[in-house]
Write a structure and sequence with these properties.
Layout lengths: L1 H4 L1 H5 L2 H15 L3 H51 L12 H41 L19 H39 L3 H8 L16 H39 L3 H5 L2 H4 L17 H39 L6 H14 L4 H46 L11 H16 L1 H19 L4 E2 L2 E2 H40 L13 H4 L13 H5 L4 H6 L16 H5 L1
Antiparallel strand pairs: 1-2
Helix pairs in contact: 4-5, 5-6, 6-8, 8-11, 11-12, 11-13, 13-14, 13-15, 15-16
Length: about 575
């Protein structure tokens, strides 16, 4: 084949060359032995050349077998690594034909492996980056060097890694959502309390404030823990500030009420008083809980307290007057001078809290009103009893007047009054008995004596009942004595005859006209003189006695012990 393709070989052959060599030897005169030796060498060289060619060709064949076997083995290995289900079937034919059929399969598997390795590398890189973000290892976030296990590049393994990556991405999303929520909460709290938001967040992690230039927000466990701590701290601070400003607001309202502060002045701090009924979650107004607001409110409260101290004496005296009026209204004697003197001494001593004193006096007023209400029914009955006793006294004086039936001015009015008085006097025993029952029930319920102008009402009633019984006995004895005298006079008249008596004029005498229709008034005049009950005029002139424990003080107060 090569001879046909090469012109030089067709013209020059081994035989022609040998003939040419023979001619040259002939011309030289080379000996036969020398010629045989050279020919032998030529044959030997030719044999060696063929032998080397055969050996090289045999080696090439072995290399083709080895390469083909390695390719087939690599195909099997790549199939196993990539998890390919199809198996490679070796083609028939020459080695070159087999190698030609194997090479495309091998190249395709190598390309698949390269792509699979790239997928694994990208997946592992993202996994490493997210894990580094969660762990807070910033140096691994952008410098992740994934290590891919090239012995297992199956789709199942790749699916597992991608599934793990998806879980990490979901966790990252949740963490980022928590971070954003915490940052939003911190911003809201910072606005309400006028706190520097950027500084507060930057102290947790700089990326939370400035996350530009490819820098991601930190979502590490440490960052989440710090954000949670900051949120809790700010919420606690908000709660404390709200409670403090509520206390200040309540103090403002109380001081405004005490000092009669104008509406215009109150409006300056209405943003504070509006917070009193608010819960901590309802307070969202910017700057409403700032330190500046609290400081200005504290200054206002302090200034109002100074004004309050100067006006407190007047307020205490107003309470004292109100208390005295309540007690006087229910006929309880109070020593106003002693009470006021004691209050002034307490205020001047500076040993008592004036607000506490007002509170205690308000409590005393409340108790006094309750006591007055509980005494009202009994006092109404006392007034009825007093009126009935006065009418009884008048009736006694009226019946002692011998000229009560004589014609004159006002006689018919006195007769009507006497008729009503007799009906009322007949009810006195029942009225007194009912009043005694009421007083005993009151004293049993309250555990104290019912005083009526410094004296026990029950004792007054008992004394009145005793005196009335004695008076009734005296009346009965007088009637019996008079009846006996009349009987003796009748018997004497029947025994000795009647004496002529001077006739009285039909009309009343001039001296008697002045007394017609009006009983002779006694100096005592009312039950006060006869039964120890004070009249209205006597009540106004009587001395005042302050009730026990009028102003409540602490047991350990030295002023109270001294008083």
């Amino acid at each position: 084949m090569r001879a046909s393709t090469s012109p030089s070989l067709t013209q020059t052959t081994c035989g022609s060359l040998l003939q040419e060599l023979q001619k040259i030897w002939d011309e030289i005169g080379e000996s036969d032995s020398e010629r045989d030796k050279i020919l032998l060498e030529l044959e030997q060289d030719c044999l060696n050349l063929y032998r080397r060619k055969v050996e090289n060709t045999r080696k090439y064949k072995a290399d083709l077998y080895q390469t083909l076997a390695e390719d087939v083995a690599e195909i099997a290995r790549l199939n196993a690594v990539l998890g390919e289900r199809t198996s490679f079937i070796r083609a028939k034919g020459t080695l070159r034909e087999q190698q030609s059929s194997t090479k495309p399969v091998l190249d395709d598997l190598r390309l698949k492996k390269q792509q699979r390795v790239k997928e694994f590398s990208e997946t592992e890189s993202q996994i490493i980056r997210i894990c580094a973000e969660i762990a807070g290892n910033d140096q691994f976030i952008n410098n992740a060097e994934p290590q891919v296990d090239e012995q297992d590049l199956t789709t199942e393994r790749l699916a597992e890694r991608k599934s793990h990556l998806e879980e990490l991405q979901n966790e990252k999303a949740l963490r980022l959502q928590k971070v954003n929520t915490h940052i939003s909460t911190i911003h809201e709290l910072s606005v309400v309390m006028s706190v520097d938001f950027r500084t507060t967040v930057a102290e947790v992690h700089p990326s939370l404030v400035d996350h530009g230039h490819g820098q991601l927000k930190s979502i590490s466990n440490d960052t989440l823990a710090k954000l949670t701590s900051v949120v809790n701290s700010l919420k606690q601070e908000k709660q404390q500030r709200l409670e403090k400003i509520k206390d200040l607001g309540i103090a403002l309202v109380e001081l405004w009420s005490l000092l009669d502060t104008s509406t215009v002045d109150q409006k300056k701090f209405e943003h504070v008083t509006w917070l009193i009924p608010s819960s901590v979650d309802e307070v969202t107004r910017p700057g409403s809980l700032s330190l500046d607001v609290i400081e200005r409110t504290e200054i206002e409260v302090e200034q109002l307290n100074i004004l309050k101290a100067s006006k407190m004496r007047e307020l205490v005296m107003k309470r004292q007057t109100e208390l005295e009026e309540i007690y006087r209204g229910v006929h309880v004697e109070v020593d106003s001078d002693a009470a006021r003197k004691m209050l002034i001494n307490l205020i001047d001593s500076g040993k008592v809290d004036l607000s506490e004193m007002l509170f205690r006096m308000d409590d005393q007023i409340r108790q006094a009103k309750e006591e007055a209400q509980s005494r009202k029914d009994i006092l109404d009955r006392v007034e009825k009893w007093k009126y009935a006793a006065e009418e009884e006294n008048w009736l006694d004086e009226y019946e002692k007047d011998d000229n009560r039936y004589c014609a004159g001015r006002g006689v018919h009015k006195n007769l009507k009054r006497a008729e009503k008085a007799r009906a009322l006097v007949g009810k006195i025993p029942t009225l007194v008995e009912s009043l005694i029952t009421k007083v005993k029930a009151w004293e049993s319920e309250k555990g104290m004596t019912f005083f009526y102008y410094k004296e026990s009402l029950l004792q007054k009633l008992d004394e009145y009942s005793l005196q009335r019984q004695q008076r009734e006995d005296e009346k009965r004895k007088t009637r019996e004595q008079k009846k006996l005298q009349e009987q003796l006079a009748t018997e004497k008249e029947a025994l000795y005859g009647s004496r002529p008596s001077a006739k009285k004029p039909l009309g009343p005498s001039i001296s008697n006209n002045a007394m017609v229709g009006t009983p002779i008034a006694r100096k005592i005049g009312t039950p006060a003189g006869r039964y120890g009950i004070s009249s209205s005029k006597e009540r106004r002139d009587s001395s005042r006695v302050i009730p026990v424990n009028f102003v409540a003080l602490a047991k350990d107060d030295p002023v109270s012990h001294a008083s």
